[in-house]
Write a structure and sequence with these properties.
Blueprint lengths: L2 E8 L6 E7 L3 H14 L3 H30 L8 H13 L2
Antiparallel strand pairs: 1-2
Length: 96
């Protein structure tokens, strides 16, 4: 499968998409994608974005989040007891 990336500003939904990816499929692959898209009442582009997110990006995002959590947990930052923290939160919310 050949992939070409183009930069193109388009705003079709609430999220702004600024990159375009082009891929070449067999006739059979494309026809099957069209069938699935019609069945799920989605565009072919939406199906491809969904597949990319599920197959390629989700694992990477999970890894990034896990590393961030490990970093936070390793900080050894001082923590007050719950009652004191709760009082500080309430005072902060009240603008004190």
């Amino acid at each position: 499968m050949k992939m070409v990336v183009h930069s193109e500003a388009k705003q079709k939904t609430a999220s702004v998409r600024t990159k375009r990816v082009q891929t070449v499929l067999t006739k059979e692959q494309y026809e099957l994608l069209l069938q699935v898209a019609k069945k799920e009442k989605k565009t072919v582009s939406a199906l491809v974005r969904q597949a990319v997110e599920a197959e390629c990006l989700e694992a990477e995002l999970r890894t990034t989040r896990h590393r961030a959590l490990e970093t936070l947990l390793s900080l050894d930052a001082p923590v007050s007891d719950w009652e004191q923290m709760e009082n500080e939160i309430v005072r902060g919310a009240a603008g004190e």
